[in-house]
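Folding problem:
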Amino acid sequence: MEPAAPGSSVTLRDVAAASGVSLSTASRALDERGTASRSAAAAHVRKVAEELGYRRNSFASSLRRGETRTLGVLVPRLSDTVMALMFEELERAASDRGYFAMVATSGDDPEDERRAAETLLDRNVDGLIMATARLDDELPRRLRERGVAHALVLRTDGVSPSALGDDEVGGYLAVRHLIDLGHRDIAVVTGPSFTSTGISRLAGARRALDEAGITLPDEWQLAVGYGIESGFSAGESLLDSNTVRRPSAVFAANDNLAMGLIAAAHRHHVTVGADLALVGYNDIPLSSRLSTPLTSVHVPLDQIAGNAIDLIVNPGKEPRIRKSMPTLIPRESSGSPRHSSTPDHA
């Protein structure tokens, strides 16, 4: 079968005629929305369409249905590993459902976020997915008031549709692991107090400590940023040789914080996994490749992405806030069980 000559336009009717099927059968076989039919007839139609050089005008088709089959994704920055991984999963989940995802970055300024959201909405996206973090963010409320389809991802304000990991359970698993290894001198380094992730992971950590009858000293509870530099600063504070007492274990509420703590530990001649047990959060790919592989709480980003997309494309289904269960991945950084609760450092 000869492909169409350059400049010619192969129509759906041409494909149907060449395939020996009706126009409606050809249309269903070539519909890119949802899961493609695996029937022999559909496979034959797709093969003929490819040989003829047929290209479906999905944009025109979508406009006829009053939709563009595109979703806007708003993230603070793509230099953050978790944000980049999250967007990849959202893009994959959108494609599986016949949608295309486009991303815009907003930084941390609310006005920049608003402009980025409006830029995406000007492209007539069918909905917005937002991974921006602040609990005091006004954008979700404004979108609700305007009736704009949207979902929050990796965080929640408790009102808008949201897809995230169960951060309280994750914080609990991290600290429970350290307690089960025999630690009682445990510090907790969380993200900013204006984030649902920081609040929930701290709540889970506190629940584990309370169950074990362990008090968290104020100086061992640090709410900082989520970057490596913040982890380094926290480590400097916790591991300074001039402090009266050092923790024997630290829960860092993301892997960037944990890596910053590792750098600070190295500077203070503290060996992670031997002198200091450390647990991170998110289980980014680098975690298992560090010189001392990092124990971390794994978050199922693929499941979260699918939930976020479904909250927009199937808006009537409940629940509106969907939490996926995290799991703890033990590695060398949390060390071996301790036979005594006495800290290694005075």
Remarks:
- The domain at 167-299+329-334 is CATH 3.40.50.2300 (Rossmann fold).
- The radius of gyration is 25 Å.
- DSSP finds twelve helices and twelve strands in the chain.
